[in-house]
Amino acid sequence: PKPNIDPTAVLIKAYACQRRTPLKHHNSFLTDALEILSQNAEYNDNEGRSVAFRRAASVLKALPYRVKNMEDLKSLPCLGDHSQRVIKEILEDGSSREVESTRQSDQFQAMKALTGIFGVGVRTADRWFREGLRSPDDLFRTGQQLNRAQQAGVQYYDDLQKPVTKAEADVISDIVEKAVRAVLPGAEIRLMGGFRRGKEVGHDVDFLITHPEEGKEEGLMPKITNWLEEQGLLLYQKTTRNSYLEKMDGPARAPNNMDRFERCFSIFKLQTGSERASVSGWRAVRVDLVVSPYSQFAFATLGWTGSKLFERELRRWAGQEKHMSLSSHALFDSKQNLYLRAKTEEEIFAYLGLEFIPPSERNA
Ligand code: TTP
Ligand code: MN
Ligand code: MN
Ligand code: MN
Known about the structure:
Blueprint: H1 28-43, H2 47-61, H3 81-93, H4 97-104, H5 106-115, H6 122-130, H7 136-141, H8 148-155, H9 157-161, E1 164-165, H10 166-183, E2 188-192, H11 193-196, E3 201-202, E4 205-210, H12 220-230, E5 234-240, E6 262-272, E7 281-291, H13 297-303, H14 308-322, E8 324-326, E9 331-333, E10 338-339, H15 345-351
Parallel strand pairs: 4-7
Antiparallel strand pairs: 1-3, 2-4, 5-6, 6-7, 8-9, 9-10
Helix pairs in contact: 1-2, 1-3, 1-4, 5-6, 10-12
The structure holds thymidine-5'-triphosphate and manganese (II) ion (MN) (3 copies).
One manganese (II) ion binds at residues 193-194, 202, 204, 206.
């Protein structure tokens, strides 16, 4: 709370990657509402609308003051008519009817529960919803065909719903470090995603792994997962091979948020409880492991830190404002027709003509 800020004097830039967005901000009462509408648009396969609401929410997260009236919003970017109507209603009445009816709708609640299952995307959840299914229990009851990921998702549903704490992430970091050191001495491991941005809880734990000697990282993932499996630490894992070819990454490539690193979606079995054996147990935790060649490590680091909107905005900025194409592997300059090499995130921001934003302020 900073009472002396004059809202009309605050300049907010249009792209999230041009702004500092802290984890804690002053406008959750508005951003939570806008993010409900964003999520609902996503459930209805309306990406444009979903991103519009998410961008509007993100602008409010960057404000150094709490919004009190519509005047406070006058000079802000990314606030469309619909978002403004919602904000106005909340400022005047304390809540928005559209948001509340969405939040309570059968479809929204079912889609939230079903997409909350590991391995279930919007398309599958929507099909199940239209078949009358509403919850993980319904899948079980009606004997739905589930793939291996979805089976694990249903089996460990309750644990995977529970937020992962930073303390748990630190324990998992130690385990991953031990595994990686055992199979490839000299490898480097970095905690990514929400925890790198300073979050105290997350829905999973993300790691990026590399080795300073280019090529040493090849085929590393199966060695790591074998080691973990032998220790009985994995409840589920699916590894996908590295499928990255530099020449495919230029302007001809279709835009796609998925990268092509060697990566592993997994569920860890994490020991919990006190030292007293009688009360100790375990819980399931989602862990993402990604292996990057050293030459791509800076790009992978930037791409795996998030937030998702921050990443999306970086790529949009690169394409629309700089005629460059950014991915988690590389930065391609279409004007010069060449790849720009970088060893650090700072260099990438500099190529893009952006002020460096530290991870803790990428919570767009
Ligand atoms: P997430 O783990 O999905 O998100 P998060 O860590 O920001 O939040 P949470 O606390 O809920 O876990 O993704 C982490 C980052 O990884 C995200 O910034 C985008 C990136 N990412 C990719 O680059 N490729 C992918 O396929 C996915 C799923 C994520
Ligand atoms: Mn994460
Ligand atoms: Mn998430
Ligand atoms: Mn993740």
